[in-house]
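Deliverable D5.2: sample structural annotation.
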Amino acid sequence: MNNSDINAVLELNELLKSLKQRTSQISLTAVNAMLIARKDPGTYKGFTVVTTELRTFCDRLNRQAEKLLTLIYKIVDKISELKKLENTIRILELTQAEIKNSESVATGILQISQEQKKNHLMLNEQLNHLLGLLSLELEHTSKQCIQGDNLGILAKIESKAGVMNGVLNLVADQVIESVDNIQTTLKDVTRKLEQGS
């Protein structure tokens, strides 16, 4: 792992934070729409149902973003451990080369170096496993966004009825735009992840 890998993971982290902000925006928009729809419950009953589903969608998406952020933190931790091990291995190899005169010391350093290399391989495997989990979770989150898109479309349909259709149509547009932004963020995260592997 090099500095560009670490930077890529940190960029992923920032993208996921923005995803959480966007889901919060959708949730607030849904609450707003619920309040508007409650002014005339008969006319906007369908819209109230859609906004309730939107809030549920946001809660699930926020939980999913938390999972993704947790994986990112674990990945950063593994990268840090790998960097430390790489430095230790490099120092041990240099030290071994310097003290070839003393066979017992060189043998001890060689053993430590081999243990560190095994640890390095193990950490690399763990890191690859975490990256695989992150990829699966991103795919799962992307599928959740399809539901969000459908909910935005339903909100748009429900907003067509009644005297407040202009306000509710605006709310539906905000939901659709927010879900589109989330999907774009997920694509960015996936692209960054693919570039890092």
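Annotation notes: Residues 3 and 57 are 36 Å apart (CA to CA). The chain has four helices and no strands.
The annotation will be released with the project's public dataset once the embargo ends.
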